[in-house]
Design a protein that fits this description.
The chain has helices at residues 4-18, 23-28; strands at 35-39, 44-47, 56-60, 65-72, 75-79, 86-89, 93-96, 99-102, 107-110, 119-123, 128-129, 131-135, 138-141, 148-152, 156-157. It is mainly β.
């Protein structure tokens, strides 16, 4: 049985994501401004997938704002912050002078420097990259616009989206 405070928080979260004008509606409306959440825990894991079995891509501190992209069960998909490193195989990177770019179509961006690492995004030909360092045949890069990771909903709050004043993630 759910505790009353947990049940109320869960109800608020469901309403937040499913009610008219809630976060769920905003996620469906491509013209709406991005939904912003605030990390409500210390050293919160960003994972490569919506489960604790996926590898940790990075950690976020309390108070950090993230852009919410989607929701799957109790997990929220966010745009990866620049503090996280992702990887692309060097065969798909071109360079002209000091500018690095993707030289293939639908190139997988991965959580680690291996073909077995989870895919966290895809890049299109010509997309510019910020290379941090070379690791074997891979480049560690700053996340591109479409790279994402997952955070358990309990560690996020959604300011401005809760009419009850409660934290919808608790």
């Amino acid at each position: 049985m759910l505790r009353p405070s947990l049940a109320g928080g869960l109800l608020a979260f469901v309403l937040l994501f499913s009610g008219p004008g809630g976060v769920g509606a905003a996620l469906q409306d491509q013209s709406a401004p991005p939904v912003v959440a605030v990390v409500s825990g210390e050293r919160v894991n960003i994972r490569a997938g919506a489960h604790t079995s996926y590898e940790v891509l990075g950690k976020l501190s309390e108070g950090v704002q993230v852009n919410v992209l989607d929701r799957e069960g109790s997990w929220v998909r966010i745009a990866l912050p620049s503090s996280v490193s992702v990887y692309v195989h060097m065969r798909y990177v071109g360079r002209i002078g000091s500018v690095s770019f993707i030289s293939g179509d639908r190139v997988n961006i991965r959580a680690g420097a291996t073909v077995n690492a989870p895919i966290v995004g895809q890049a299109q030909s010509g997309q510019e990259l910020v290379i941090r360092k070379k690791t074997g045949d891979w480049y560690e890069i700053e996340p591109l616009a479409h790279c994402s990771g997952w955070i358990y909903e309990e560690y996020l709050s959604f300011p401005g989206h809760s009419s009850s004043g409660e934290n919808p993630a608790h």
